[in-house]
Amino acid sequence: MGKGLPPPPSFDIEAGKNNCKSHHRTQPPRPPAFVPPAPEPWFAWLLPLIFVANIVMFVVTMYINDCPLTSGPENCLFYEYLGRFSFQSLKDNPLLGPSLITLRELGALDWKLVVVGKQAWRLISCIWLHAGVIHLLANMMSLLCIGIRLEEEFGFLRIGLLYMLSGFGGSLKSALTPGRRQTISVGASGALFGLLGAMLSELITNWSNYRNKCQSLSTMLLIICLNLAVGFLPHVDNSAHIGGFVSGFLAGFILLMRPQFGYISRKHVPTGYEIKHKVPRHKCYQYLLLVIALVLLIAGFAIGLSRLFEVQTYKLSKPFNSSN
């Protein structure tokens, strides 16, 4: 008979060299690197709703205007096709819209009615009126191009508040401009320029989150300059543009501040993961800009309103003082 088979190797840890591999056990695989989920875009519904509301308001304005009744069918544009909704003559309104009387009755910004008549609500109502089809189309195209992206990124609450603050700021600046006291002002241009201003402040306060910083800044400044240049055309209220832009610029530091790059919220960290290098949610300069902008915005509105209504107080007291 031949030799017997050798005994099987021992798997005891203390057995010696046959178990040398036991001292080099395979390490368990590392968990995959944690990547925080990308933020989901908001569903934009508020600014499209504002778009529809402006169009509906313009149709209502033309219905109330009733050019054939107030001016005669022969003085109305496209009366054969539009009937009651026909436009005033180009002499009365070159923008294809209602008369100034109708706009004033529906809430246009009129300095005398705001200050003397104490109708401060016109600082808001004028945002929803437009002088004509050309005016309406220009503003609504800008609203969709600028506003939709902002609402998708920051949500309806912040962008809605930003829109109203900018519109109010534009109306206030327009009412404070001496050259605008003899005419009326309507339109959402101030609110739209506020969205442009907010885009610039958003770029500044979230500077560390952008890659092509200089390119983004130069592009934004070019767009802003081109839009402000339109304000120097005749019959355009550039004071409302400037007031809305400044208001939106300051409000952007308050409402559009993002977490800095690398920040991970605890609710997005799975169980078992531990973040060694935690990044603060915001940088110090972001909080500083927020505080400065908040103070300037509140102070600007307070001073503007006091100056607007103290003019009438001064005029009422001036004859009394002169008589003495």
List the helices and strands and how they pair.
Blueprint: H1 46-65, H2 67-71, E1 76-77, H3 79-82, E2 87-88, H4 100-106, E3 109-110, H5 111-115, H6 122-125, H7 133-154, H8 156-176, E4 184-185, H9 189-205, H10 213-230, H11 238-255, H12 284-323
Antiparallel strand pairs: 1-2, 3-4
Helix pairs in contact: 1-7, 7-8, 7-9, 8-9, 8-11, 8-12, 9-10, 9-11, 11-12
What do you see in this structure?
The chain has about 325 residues and is mostly helical. The chain has twelve helices and four strands; from the N terminus they run H-H-E-H-E-H-E-H-H-H-H-E-H-H-H-H. It has helices at about 45-65, 65-70, 80, 100-105, 110-115, 120-125, 135-155, 155-175, 190-205, 215-230, 240-255, 285-324, and strands at about 75, 85-90, 110, 185. The strands form two sheets. The protein has a two-stranded antiparallel ribbon with strand order 1-2. A two-stranded antiparallel sheet has the order 3-4. Helix 7 crosses helix 8 (about 155-175) and helix 11 (about 240-255) packs across helix 12. The longest helix has about 40 residues, at about 285-324. The N and C termini lie far apart (about 145 Å).
| Morphology call | globular
Question: What is the H/E string?
Answer: HHEHEHEHHHHEHHHH
> What percentage of amino acids are in beta strands?
under 5%
For the biggest β-sheet, the strand order reads 1-2
User: Helix count?
Assistant: 12
Helix content: 55-70%
Give the total of beta strands: 4
Low-pLDDT segments: 11-16, 316-324
Radius of gyration: 32 Å
N- and C-termini, Cα separation? 144 Å
Query: How does the helix and strand content classify structurally?
Result: mainly alpha
Describe the main β-sheet briefly. 2 strands, antiparallel
**What value does the average pLDDT take?**
81
